[in-house]
């Protein structure tokens, strides 16, 4: 299965290309995948300095970026840790946008640290499991920091929707539609981490549940969890604005003005 949900976040923007890429997790990475990466980087993997892996330890499957580390690319593990979350603690009827706001408020320092790593490591690739939630919010914060309009951020986030059927299969889920996904042991590709669950970001980014049985409860508890609805990222961006924007929020939690300047110099020029 190819490296899914891979793209340059500069697509459709005035930003400099080949500086910040995003994707889902690697699974049986092949030379064809690294060729696609090289194309996005201007023809050579030598231009990639950092892979920011946002997955928890439980989600990772060994040295799955070996084909890149062999080229000298640094892979930094930036996943959060914690105990499995208690779904009963979530507000009833919560939707994905509401969850994103909870993530923003509960993991602000983590977001700041990830953005700082990216600022110091460009050109970079950022990914989680699906490349949707953790990755989508980190990318949204970076784009807000460098002055990208919200409608462009929404478009980048929503582009994941076309990849979700393949991503669901890769993560060991089956569904007639993303919103109806349920775990299936038979669907887990050989060698894949059988997440059988929404990744760690799904419940305030604590450690992902270790069993597939957690999926129905999560999907039932959080509306839109296995989709990439524009409304969710719009809710997140509105909350970000209400908190003064990405720069004000993240610099209050460890991101420096120097990091912001480096991001703008690299992505905007």
UniProtKB/TrEMBL annotation:
Alphabetical list of PROSITE patterns matching this protein: TYR_PHOSPHATASE_1, TYR_PHOSPHATASE_2
The protein's Enzyme Commission number: 3.1.3.48
InterPro entries for this protein: Prot-tyrosine_phosphatase-like (IPR029021), Tyr/Ser_Pase_IphP-type (IPR026893), Tyr_Pase_AS (IPR016130), Tyr_Pase_dom (IPR000387)
Lipid biosynthesis keyword on record: no
Keywords in alphabetical order: Hydrolase
Xref: SUPFAM superfamilies: (Phosphotyrosine protein) phosphatases II (SSF52799)
GO MF assignments: protein tyrosine phosphatase activity
Top-level class of the enzyme under EC nomenclature: hydrolase
Domain Tyrosine specific protein phosphatases: 109-143
Pfam families the UniProt entry points to: Y_phosphatase3
Entry superkingdom: Bacteria
Keyword presence, Hydrolase: yes
Protein name: Protein-tyrosine phosphatase
Organism: Streptosporangium saharense
């Amino acid at each position: 299965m190819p490296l899914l949900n891979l793209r340059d976040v500069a697509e459709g923007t005035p930003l400099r290309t080949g500086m910040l890429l995003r994707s889902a997790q690697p699974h049986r990475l092949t030379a064809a995948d690294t060729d696609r990466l090289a194309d996005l980087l201007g023809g050579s993997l030598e231009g990639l300095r950092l892979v920011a892996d946002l997955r928890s330890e439980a989600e990772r499957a060994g040295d799955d970026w070996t084909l890149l580390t062999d080229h000298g690319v640094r892979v930094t593990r930036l996943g959060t840790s914690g105990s499995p979350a208690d779904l009963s603690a979530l507000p009833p009827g919560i939707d994905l946008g509401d969850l994103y706001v909870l993530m923003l408020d509960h993991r602000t320092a983590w977001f700041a640290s990830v953005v700082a790593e990216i600022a110091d490591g460009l050109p970079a690739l950022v990914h989680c499991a699906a490349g949707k939630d953790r990755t989508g919010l980190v990318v949204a914060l970076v784009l807000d920091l460098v002055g990208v309009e919200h409608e462009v951020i929404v478009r980048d986030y929503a582009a994941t929707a076309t990849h979700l059927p393949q991503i669901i299969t890769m993560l060991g889920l089956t569904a007639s539609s993303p919103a109806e996904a349920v775990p299936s042991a038979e669907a887990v590709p050989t060698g894949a981490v059988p997440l059988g669950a929404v990744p760690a970001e799904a419940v305030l980014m604590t450690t992902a549940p270790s069993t597939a049985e957690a999926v129905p409860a999560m999907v039932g508890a959080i509306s839109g969890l296995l989709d990439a609805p524009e409304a969710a990222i719009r809710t997140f961006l509105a909350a970000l604005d209400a908190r003064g924007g990405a720069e004000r929020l993240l610099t209050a939690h460890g991101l420096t003005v120097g990091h912001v300047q480096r991001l703008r110099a690299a992505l905007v020029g």
